[in-house]
Amino acid sequence: MPRPTLEQVAQRAGVSRATVSRVVNDSPTVAESIRTAVRRAIDELGYVPNQAARSLVTQRTDSYALILPESPSRVFSDDQFFPGIIRGVSQELDSADKQLVLMVAGSQASHDRIERYALARHIDGVLIASMHGADPLPGTLARMGIPVLCGGRPLGQVRVPYVEVDNVNGGRMAVRHLLETGRTRIATIAGPQDMVAGIDRLTGYREELRGSDRRSIVAVGDFTRDSGAVAMRQLLEDDPDLDAVFVASDLMAHGALQALQSAGRRVPDDVAVIGFDDIALARYTEPPLSTVRQPIVGQGREMARQLLRLAAGEDIADSVILPTELVIRGTT
User: Fold this and answer.
1) Which of 49-63, 175-189, 315-329 has the lowest mean pLDDT?
2) Residue 278 and residue 182 share a domain
3) What is the spatial distance between Cα 95 and Cα 249, in angstroms, rounded to a whole number?
4) InterPro entries this protein is in (predicted)?
5) Residue 329 lies in a domain
6) Measuring CA to CA, how many Å separate 2 from each of 29, 40, 52, 290?
7) CATH, residue 216
8) 3-state DSSP assignment of residue 168
9) What Å distances lie between residue 140 and 32, 106, 148, 226, 298, CA to CA?
């Protein structure tokens, strides 16, 4: 059947076309009794507003972008962090009757495409998560007048609001737990040092060790399982007597556990292991992985919540820091 028109809704409700348009665009100038009659006519006819035309009137699209500056293979091979962030953002936007637009930006060409898309005002705001280095994208979009909020503290001189977890304190809690269990040669497999999570978790490790007068033993991975295995083998070569390792992600910790098993090291008898994230996998490693829990879905929800307030013209805090929690299992 042909799509109902604005004129047909106006005729059914007994009002003008302009009045129907004001109701559709949520104008506060329409009396409640007329608004009720128009909405009843919309429901009876099954009228669906033309979003493009509505956006011309309201200057809003009710769509918000989540940008992940990673390669598609990295985003879609990760079965924990990215799905958790996406789920949290989607839940919050859905509850506000807003649309999520997911953008993967692993190249300069994709950055340029996103800038053009945002400049054309197809979206009302932007969230950016998993940034590497001093990414210019947040600052570029903010200078365009687009509301921008980051997941994690932006590196460099960019000044946009952000939501992140307390990575430094999480690292400190992990190392403090290892010290309290009597470990003396505590190494770390740090995350990439062009990402704030990798930098801050290493900072927490070093700060806690410094207070105990023990030296740092550091290898660096890229938050993947394979890099954790490679880094663990490197640590064992560099310091065969190490008796504990704090690993900056659970996926890397899983790789480290496999490397320790291959080297004939018993966990936790010979080497204690603690990760970071508390993804589902942590409960099913052998032994189950001690870790630092971060609220991945909660971070996504808080990011979307803050962005919606920013896009509505409300004042928001420059930063929101979410707490982490120590989870003790069999590997320590």
Assistant:
1) 49-63
2) yes
3) 31
4) HTH_LacI, LacI/GalR-like_sensor, Lambda_DNA-bd_dom_sf, Peripla_BP_I
5) no
6) 31, 19, 19, 60
7) 3.40.50.2300
8) helix
9) 43, 17, 10, 34, 27
